[in-house]
Every structure is written in structure tokens, then in C-alpha cells.
Amino acid sequence: MILTANEVTAALPVLDAITALRSALEAGLDPEAGPPRTTAPLSAGHLLVMPAEWGRHAGVKVVSVAPGNVDLPRIQGHYLLLDAKTLAPLRILDGIALTAIRTAAVSALAVDALAPPGAARLVVFGAGPQAYRHVTALHAIRPVSEVIVVGRDPDRRQALVSWCKEQGLAARNGAPDDVADADLVVCATTARTPLFDGSALPAQAVVVAVGSHEPDAAELDRATMTRGPVVVEARSAALREAGDVIQAGLGEDDLVDLATLVRDGCPDATVFKSVGMAWEDLVLAAHVHESA
């Protein structure tokens, strides 16, 4: 069976996705155990291949990136879920919808362990699909009441502000300096260089960065990355792919993996840097399959 983007979205409410990810980590899933993402260059762009195995399931996500596409999306992809014992195909899911849901759900899982219970003021950098997903996910776990949107495109920025207001949230256009009063900061952009001055952050503010998995791109500056331990999905992946981590000169001892955060907590951490990993897609694809 092939599930469309709308069917994947309907099958994965954000709180269900967060719970599924948390349950897998609490049950012993080790993000370090999976193979790394593979990138294959092609004449029209490149392919990203992300395999994983956990419990009764294995799977692989294949995403194509074709920068020159005009009438088709620049990024396309599907997820193939397999039975772990026989490797027989079980289900195919729209990979872009799955990625969109899991990225915000992983962030919310980390924020739920890091942020004060009353965190209400959210500053969002970016106005693309992940900005919307993160507003929804963080509002599901914290009493977010105000959203400040910072972005380069005024039309997209205003569209997100208007959408937030439709959800019953106070919202306005903002500037990088607005982080000085933030409880939560989400960076979901294509920026190659830091978006704000980390020295302006309040001590209690929790920062999430999801915009890149490239060593030469960083949304966060060194001041932000050295506030305390940095939470990452897996140390090896972060040290290989996360420009925010690499450019800040951080090492293994500066990082806390997400599984440890979920199982044991980390009271000194206020930053979560995500690169996106294959196990996250697998957990949620399996959840969709078993819930059908």
C-alpha cells in the first residue's frame, strides 16, 4: 500500500509522533547504531539514502534533490518500510510528509525535556513548512501564546503571522533582537551563517536548530553553542554533519545525545541541534503501519 502525503499527515498527529519517538528511545533504540546518510551525486542533482533497522522493522528513505525543477517539486521522496526478518516490503509512505512531521516531532521531544513548563514566547526564524510544523508541535507541548516571525521574505513571513493568528496565537513580524525576550527559539532556515547574537539570549531560553545537515552551514553562533551541553540526536552524526557543532569547535564531551536526554535528563542543556536521522523516519513509518 502507498500512503499519500495527506494520508501520512492524517495518520501521524503530532502528539502521537512525539510519543512514538520517546517510546522507542526509552525502549533502548540506539541512534548511534544506524548507518550514516549517503549522498549520491547525479546529473540533475543528488539522492539522499537513509536506511535503518529497529525491532520488527527495517526501512529506507530515498529523497531526490533536483535544483533545476520548475514544474515539479525540487525535493521529492518516498519511504519503504520492510519486515525486519524477511525484508519483505510492507508499506510505502510519502517521504516528504514523513520528514516534515518527524523533524518537528523530534524537536518537540527535545524541547519537552529542556524547556520550563511555562515557556510561552516563541521566536521563529524562517517561514517555510518547518516553521509551521514547529509552531504546531511546540504549541502541543508548551503553552505558547505569542509567536514572533523573523524571515527574509515579507510575504511568506506575513503568511505565517496570519496563520498563527488563525490558530488563536498572538503573532507579529520580528527581528533577530527579539531573541532577548524569548522562551523558545526555532531556527528552520537555509541560512549558511548565524541568524542572531547568542549573547542576547535569556538564560532560560531553549534554542532549536533544524535548518541544515551540512558541515559548512550554521544557523547558531559560538555564543549560543557554548551556553552549556548541546543536545544532538547522536554524537557521531553531529560531529560529521552539523555545521553549528563543527564550526563552534565542539567535541564529544560537549554533546549530549537525545536518548540520554529522554532517559536521564540534562538540566544544564538549553540547545538542541538536529540533523535528521534515519531511525526517526523508521519509528514513525512503523507506527503508522502498526496503527492502521
TrEMBL record:
Gene3D superfamilies linked: NAD(P)-binding Rossmann-like Domain, ornithine cyclodeaminase, domain 1
GO CC annotation: cytoplasm
Domain of life: Bacteria
A Pfam short name: OCD_Mu_crystall
Protein's name according to its UniProt entry: Ornithine cyclodeaminase
Organism: Labedaea rhizosphaerae
Classification lineage: Bacteria, Bacillati, Actinomycetota, Actinomycetes, Pseudonocardiales
